[in-house]
Design goal:
There is one protein chain. By secondary structure, this protein is α/β, with parallel strands linked by helices. The protein has 2 domains: 6-174 and 359-374, Glycogen Phosphorylase B (Rossmann fold); 177-357, Rossmann fold. It has helices at residues 19-30, 47-55, 72-83, 95-108, 130-141, 151-161, 186-192, 214-226, 242-251, 267-272, 288-295, 326-338, 340-354, 360-374; strands spanning 6-12, 36-42, 60-62, 89-93, 113-117, 145-148, 168-170, 200-205, 231-236, 258-262, 276-279, 299-303, 319-321. The protein is globular, with a radius of gyration of 21 Å.
Length: 375
């Protein structure tokens, strides 16, 4: 008689374009489907990556609820949903999903709850985030395992939430190399935007929101432009700051130099057409997009947040600057104009370093080990 497969449910706010969502797709794309019975649920809508996951053959449910953690109706809806599923393991990702999912699991008597943490605990800064602090602190006690994307984040959570070390584990972010194919040649992309061969091309891939630091990047690009150097900057991502950033670029004379591409799907094409990747985040975990840029052989500029130093060493394979400092960010960008050989040197080192983060099958095996232990 064959052994019954364990049922695992992944709970997300949504599965739009983002690092954590891309990781979920990579995991499910490479998993042994005969090993577990897997289903997904989105508190809001499934999004583009959710649709891609469905094409892999997985069921993705939508609840169509407001995801805010303070919305009790959403928690009740998740409880009702979980009661209908009869699952062995609930795995949630990011704060709002972790909040609703953990409370619902407690109400439904689901003991095996895994939460994933993908970002620096920015909610611990300031009195207005006290509800986040308290809910995370209390709910962590009733969570079976917390999975962190980096050792830096793991140490931070153990310390701030006063948890036993064996409750918090690290499964480092990685990429699936098969998902990063270039379809349009470098020269073709540049010609499409009238970019000359002697121009340096910078690129940022991130949601257009406050915690990604775009405001400081635009301020830095204003300073760079005033130096009279030739450059273009691809800005990939969408979000609440889109209109503000458009207007700021217009006011600063950056129209045409900063190229907003929205939520582009062919990101490897634009990475391949660029020289330097810039990540101006205020908070981070272990950025998947940084690993992607390194894998594509780009030099880097990153802020000193999250686990960025686990990937980038200052003046070895990139430049590290303080967060929210447009002047030092501008200086880092200008550094590459005076040291163009460093672009090639850093890019080669980054491509080599990224190989250790391309072990998708190791990433999958670590989750197998975790699920089998709980089940």
């Amino acid at each position: 008689m064959s052994k019954q497969k364990k049922k695992i449910l992944f709970l997300h706010v949504g599965l739009g374009v983002g690092g954590a969502e891309q990781l979920r797709y990579a995991l499910l794309k490479n998993i042994d489907r005969d090993r577990y019975d897997i289903k997904l649920c989105c508190i809001k809508k499934k999004g583009k990556i959710g649709e891609k996951i469905e094409k892999l053959g997985y069921k993705v449910d939508e609840l169509g609820q407001d995801h805010a953690f303070k919305n009790i109706k959403t928690t009740v809806r998740v409880i009702r949903y979980l009661k209908s599923q009869k699952i062995d393991i609930l795995q949630t990702s990011l704060f709002d999903s972790n909040f609703h999912g953990r409370i619902a699991a407690l109400a439904c008597g689901i003991p095996n709850v895994i939460t994933e943490e993908h970002s620096d605990h920015y909610q611990y800064r300031g009195i207005k985030f006290l509800p986040y602090v308290m809910s995370d602190y209390l709910l962590a006690k009733m969570t079976k395992v917390i999975v962190c994307c980096s050792e830096t984040l793991r140490a931070d959570i153990i310390s701030k939430e006063r948890l036993p070390a064996n409750k918090v584990i690290t499964i480092r972010n990685c990429i699936d190399p098969s998902m990063y194919r270039v379809n349009e040649p470098r020269d073709s992309v540049r010609q499409r935007f009238n970019i000359n061969n002697d121009e340096l091309v910078f690129i940022t891939v991130a949601t257009l929101c406050n915690r990604k630091g775009h405001i400081y990047l635009i301020e830095a690009l204003k300073r760079v432009n005033e130096k009279g150097v030739k450059f273009s900057h691809f800005m990939i991502g969408d979000g609440d700051l889109k209109d503000l950033l458009y207007e700021r670029c217009k006011d600063y004379g950056l129209t045409g130099k900063v190229i907003f591409l929205g939520a582009a799907e062919n990101v490897p094409d634009y990475l391949n057409a660029s020289d330097v990747f810039v990540l101006p985040s205020i908070v981070e975990g272990l950025p998947l997009v940084l690993i992607e840029a390194m894998f594509m052989g780009l030099a880097t500029i990153v802020t000193d947040v999250g686990a960025n130093r686990e990937l980038v060493s200052d003046n070895v394979n990139g430049i590290i600057v303080p967060p929210a400092d447009s002047e030092k960010l501008a200086n880092a960008i200008l550094f590459y104009f005076g040291n163009k050989r460093k672009i090639t040197e850093f890019g080669l080192k980054n491509k080599q370093n990224a190989q250790e983060h391309c072990l998708i099958h190791t990433y999958v095996q670590q989750f197998y080990n975790l699920w089998d232990t709980l089940a």
